[in-house]
Backbone:
């Protein structure tokens, strides 16, 4: 009995084939090309944010693991529930003649830290709607906050970083001195081993969890460093952005203490955030283009440019599923954009598509 083999099968199975193309490559060539991901350039939702400050050095929005968006507006903090659209007033500092200068959620989203213009830090239990603790220690406004488990770090215009163990009644457990001007950016690494701090002195410092002196000092930026974000994909990889006179996003290997790469974005870098689903990052900008830029990494290829804000895009937060970002600006709007891929449909609750535009008041 004889068997006939097709020429194609014989070519693929024969060890004596003269083709320089491997079977795996042949298979890839035969498969249909992947459809490029479509990124909507219009916001999925627009919320009014009356009296949100047009101040580069503040951090006034953050999105919790429980899908609550915290927004600091003047004397008050408001919470917007992304699932129901409900808005609640968490706290009001009018009676103390104080204003909100920063907000930051704990990892589980059960506590919100609020920094104030008078240098105070408040811890709020969101479920109970009550303030747990108010802590002094800074001599000027607290523009940046960052959680590490039970440790809350705060950066101030007084140039000091204070680490507080919120289980301890003491005002702070560690004092970090290094910056010569306002500390406007703070971010703990995903493994909670390193704290990155950026200042109006154009400096970027990396602090070890067990020391009060910087592990690394980076002096490459030529303007204030507010934008900081650790990669969730590569241990020790940090992205930082510089202000108007710098315009660059720089990437650092904080294990070796060396710069990895940089790109000139063309305008002031206000915020950076990595996607947790893919190796991409988003940056928001001020003078002079006021744009939102999406980048692939490590090739730093621009994937999309989003416009709509009429002033500097000073604030940025990412949804808990990692698909949606919200941006805030001095034009008193919050804009929601579906930019990153995810495991479910990439739409906001209540939206019928990426073209949906609804305007409501965050208050």
Residues:
């Amino acid at each position: 009995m004889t068997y006939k083999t097709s020429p194609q099968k014989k070519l693929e199975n024969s060890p004596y084939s003269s083709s320089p193309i491997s079977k795996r490559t042949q298979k890839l060539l035969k498969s249909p090309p992947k459809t490029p991901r479509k990124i909507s350039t219009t916001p999925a939702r627009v919320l009014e944010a009356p009296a949100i400050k047009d101040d580069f050095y503040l951090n006034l929005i953050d999105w919790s693991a429980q899908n609550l968006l915290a927004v600091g507006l003047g004397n008050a903090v408001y919470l917007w529930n992304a699932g129901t659209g409900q808005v609640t007033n968490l706290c009001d500092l009018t009676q103390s003649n104080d204003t909100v200068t920063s907000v930051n959620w704990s990892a589980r989203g059960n506590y919100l830290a609020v920094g104030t213009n008078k240098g105070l830090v408040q811890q709020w239990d969101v479920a109970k709607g009550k303030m747990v603790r108010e802590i002094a220690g800074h001599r000027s406004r607290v523009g940046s906050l960052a959680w590490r488990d039970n440790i809350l770090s705060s950066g101030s215009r007084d140039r000091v970083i204070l680490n507080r163990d919120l289980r301890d009644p003491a005002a702070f457990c560690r004092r970090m001195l290094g910056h010569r001007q306002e500390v406007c950016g703070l971010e703990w690494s995903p493994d909670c081993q390193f704290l990155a701090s950026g200042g109006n002195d154009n400096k970027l410092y990396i602090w070890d969890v067990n020391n009060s002196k910087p592990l690394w000092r980076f002096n490459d930026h030529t303007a204030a460093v507010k934008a900081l974000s650790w990669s969730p994909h590569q241990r020790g990889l940090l992205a930082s952005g510089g202000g108007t006179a710098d315009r660059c996003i720089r990437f650092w290997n904080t294990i070796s203490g060396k710069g990895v790469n940089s790109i000139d974005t063309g305008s002031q870098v206000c915020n950076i955030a990595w996607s947790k689903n893919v190796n991409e990052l988003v940056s928001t900008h001020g003078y002079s283009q006021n744009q939102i830029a999406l980048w692939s990494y490590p090739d730093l290829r621009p994937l999309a440019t989003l416009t709509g804000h009429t002033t500097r895009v000073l604030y940025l937060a990412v949804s808990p599923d990692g698909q949606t970002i919200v941006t805030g600006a001095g034009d008193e709007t919050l804009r929601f954009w579906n930019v990153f891929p995810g495991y479910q449909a990439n739409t906001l609750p209540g939206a019928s598509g990426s073209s949906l535009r609804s305007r409501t008041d965050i208050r």
Observations:
- The mean pLDDT is 89.
- The first helix runs from residue 7 to 13.
